[in-house]
Design goal:
Blueprint: H1 4-12, H2 26-45, E1 52-56, E2 59-61, H3 67-77, H4 79-87, E3 104-109, E4 114-116, H5 132-143, E5 147-152, H6 159-175, E6 180-185, E7 191-192, E8 199-200, H7 218-243
Parallel strand pairs: 1-3, 2-4, 3-5, 5-6
Antiparallel strand pairs: 7-8
Helix pairs in contact: 1-2, 5-6, 6-7
């Protein structure tokens, strides 16, 4: 089940149509309960199955230093942890969660995933922007599970530089001990934006042109190849260090 936290927020705040009673938090409890029952059934039928969940990885900063603002930002950020905390049984134990129901902790991270509480997006390079490596290390330590960057990507001319940034941060998190199993660029093809149906050029492959083909983004492809080389060259060193 993808992005339980986001789906729940979208229903509670009216971004998606209302589902069930107009009771804030009801939908998230239903989704998590379903996830727990499904995961237990999968583990029972296929004990060697690997269960990976995916949730948005976000940062919310206060826009001033008033206590009310700081508390509001902190409280709002706690929603990021809830789905995993409930599925693993760290919180809301009456739902039946357990650590065994999560094998790999997936996180979805995009350029717009950091913002001020009740305010605008925080751009990369801003003093309030939190490094991705710090966030990945925090999640690896919090859940004591392997981590997977299950979605990441950028749009237009920002694609290669975003991949460069993300992969550097992943290697830094791995250097600091986080067990990170992979990076998934999503989506790999351009798509119609789901807010306004624009042609969102986010992928390695363009929208379909007049002759029915898709163009390859050569700059993004070159960055993919560079990052593969960098990961290939760094992984043997980490394996040998772990063996010692």
């Amino acid at each position: 089940m993808n992005e339980i936290n986001f789906l729940s927020w979208a229903v509670d705040d009216g971004y998606f149509p209302q589902v069930g009673p107009e009771q804030r938090g009801w939908f998230k409890r239903q989704l998590v309960t379903t996830a727990i029952v499904a995961a237990r059934a999968i583990k029972r039928e296929w004990p060697k199955a690997t269960i990976i969940w995916a949730e948005p990885l976000i940062h919310i900063a206060p826009h001033d230093h008033r206590r009310q603002t700081i508390r509001g930002a902190h409280k709002n950020l706690q929603g990021m942890y809830e789905a995993y905390d409930w599925i693993t049984g760290r919180a809301e134990p009456e739902l039946g969660g357990d650590s065994s129901l999560v094998d790999v902790v997936g996180w979805n991270f995009y350029p717009h995933n950091q913002w001020y509480w009740k305010g605008p997006t925080i751009p990369m390079g801003h003093h309030e922007y939190r490094p991705l490596a710090d966030m990945l290390v925090e999640m690896a330590e919090r859940y004591q599970k392997p981590v997977f960057l299950s979605e990441t990507g950028a749009e237009g001319s920002g694609k290669p530089s975003w991949l460069h940034y993300v992969c550097n941060e992943v290697r830094e998190a791995m250097r600091r001990g986080a067990d990170i199993r992979g990076v998934c660029w999503y989506p790999i093809t351009a798509y119609p934006g789901w807010d306004n149906s624009r042609h969102a050029e986010t992928g390695l492959f363009s929208t379909i042109v007049a002759n029915g083909h898709r163009h390859v983004d050569e700059k993004l492809l070159a960055e993919f190849e560079l990052q593969r080389e960098l990961f290939d060259s760094s992984l043997p060193k980490r394996r040998s260090a772990a063996a010692r």
